[in-house]
Amino acid sequence: MGTLSVFLDVPLIKGTGIPLDVYRVDPSPQKAGGVQTIGGTGAVFIGAEFLRRWYKPNSSTSTAVYIAIPQLGSLGCIFQTAGFNDIRPYQYWDPVKLTVNIQQFLLDLQSAPERSIVFLHAPEETGLSPKQWGKVATVMEKKHLFPFFDVAAQGLASGNLDRDAWALRHFVARGFELLCAQSFSKTFGLYEERVGNLIVVTKDNETLIRIQSQLAKQVTMIWYGPTSLGARLITMVLNSPALLYEWKENLLTLVKRIMLMREKLKEKLRILGTPGSWEHLTAQAGTNSFIGLLPSQVEFLEKQKHIYLLPNNQINICSINSKNLDYIAQSIHEAVMSG
Predict the structure, then answer these.
(1) Which of 27, 162, 168, 199 is least crowded, fewest Cβ atoms below 10 Å from its Cβ?
(2) What span, in angstroms and rounded, lies between the C-alpha atoms of 268 and 275?
(3) When comparing pLDDT for 116 and 71, which is higher?
């Protein structure tokens, strides 16, 4: 499987000058650690920079990076800026059937060069099942592919923190070494105090300490130390049983509201007689949804109705409320009827 054992020759850097709350090197025999970043995007960038410098399983060819098609535009540029020149798409979402295309996903992984880097999303809007995640892990083991997870909204897919972290923990339990870009911006509402965490999982503590020292050097070169206000708020919540319970309950309340909006939008479209099936709206989870419109229909919404979707055909469900639900449903109906 993709492993960080190729990093055993990474030199240990001492005395980086970075604050201890950011540069966390634990002398105890731990196999997982992290560095604080500016949001999840900052974690992706630090991780991509690190992999470009130190992950060189084949010195004769460049390492391929696989990114899901919906995120290729936004994340591909980060890896490209980091210095990767072989960035390839993989498909896990069928835009025609509006469901997970697990077979195509597995085929893309099977055809990947050995020891390629695969950027994975968990939880993701489409909702891969544990069985499907198991198949993904099996293929990645056989091909020695290196997993780089993105956990952007833990708790906002199912309302349960453990359930949303299942895929990542499954890979760790199977012995993978990996990187994980974690964001707290959405889950804590810290949009102006973005807080992220780049997690490293290795097979031994020595490798972890060496890698963390290099990550600390990168952080020093880019922003020295991220702002502390957001991180202190998160620390306060996570270390207080009462606040932690309240936060978890708030996450669950938000998820219930998201699912309610999905149900209401689907029902509005059914009442309007909008052509097509809209079951995918409630089959998906999370803050965003692949709505299943054609590019021309997305353009209609933008130009005629001033409703703006993401370039990958996703709509932010959190932007829908009781005041604009009817307008959005009617606009989607007109977009579909316009062809």
Answers:
(1) 27
(2) 12
(3) 116
State the average pLDDT for the chain: 88
Relative to beta strand 32-37, strand 196-201 is antiparallel
Q: What are phi and psi of 286, to 5 degrees?
A: 95, 180
DSSP for 252-320, written as a single string = HHHHHHHHHHHHHHHHHHHHHT-SS--THHHHS-SSEEE----HHHHHHHHHHH-----TTSEEEGGG-
pTM above 0.70, yes or no: yes
DSSP letter at 153? Answer: S
- CATH superfamily for domain 258-337: Aspartate Aminotransferase, domain 1 (3.90.1150.10)
- Give whole-number Cα distances, 290 to 165, 232, 274, 297, in Å: 22, 35, 17, 13
Assigned token pair, 52 = 């470009």
DSSP 8-19: TTPPPP------
Looking at per-residue pLDDT, the higher value among 59 and 316 belongs to 316
What are the structural domain ranges in the chain?
A: 4-238, 258-337
- pLDDT of residue 95 exceeding 90: no
Sequence-distant (≥ 6) Cβ neighbours of residue 339 within 8 angstroms: 294, 296, 297
- For the chain, the distance separating the N- and C-terminal CA atoms, rounded to the nearest angstrom, is 46
CA angle 283–98–306, rounded 5-degree value: 90
Q: How far apart are CA 292 and CA 99, in angstroms?
A: 10
The DSSP secondary-structure symbol of 21 reads: T
Residue 228 has pLDDT above 70, yes or no: yes
Name the β-bridge partners of 146.
Answer: 117
CATH number for the domain formed by residue range(s) 4-238: 3.40.640.10
Give the model's pLDDT for residue 124: 66
pLDDT in tens, 19-35: 333 334 444 458 899 99
Structure tokens at 304: 């005629």
Residue 156 pLDDT > 70, yes or no? Answer: yes
From CA 218, how far away is CA 58, in angstroms rounded?
A: 23
